[in-house]
């Protein structure tokens, strides 16, 4: 029996780093078993360091675009993952029946303190969390 894909929505403030990384890993590991989107409360540009650290692990997100939260996608999701602390007060209320996951991953792109090392640390943390999330949703992950 074929299950319908799980709809996962990764949210952050600007959709330029953490939520983009999470979306890329979820697509990479979840394949056709997931429909994955990411967005921010504000749209920004995908940060060049984000593109760079993902290229290091063989995932090209150079053509990704930063998006604002879309309420249609929001309410159609099975799982909403909030990647940052700041979303707590500002995010729309997650409707009953949708899993609400909070990761609170440190922003590696604090203005004036951006470093590729910090973005790599965030990338690796997000990768582990995405794999755990997919496993928890019974999504088959390739070895």
Automatic annotation (TrEMBL):
<protein>
    <submittedName>
        <fullName>Arsenate reductase ArsC</fullName>
    </submittedName>
</protein>
<dbReference type="InterPro" id="IPR036196">
    <property type="entry name" value="Ptyr_pPase_sf"/>
</dbReference>
<dbReference type="InterPro" id="IPR023485">
    <property type="entry name" value="Ptyr_pPase"/>
</dbReference>
<keyword id="KW-0059">Arsenical resistance</keyword>
<dbReference type="Pfam" id="PF01451">
    <property type="entry name" value="LMWPc"/>
</dbReference>
<feature type="domain" description="Phosphotyrosine protein phosphatase I">
    <location>
        <begin position="6"/>
        <end position="136"/>
    </location>
</feature>
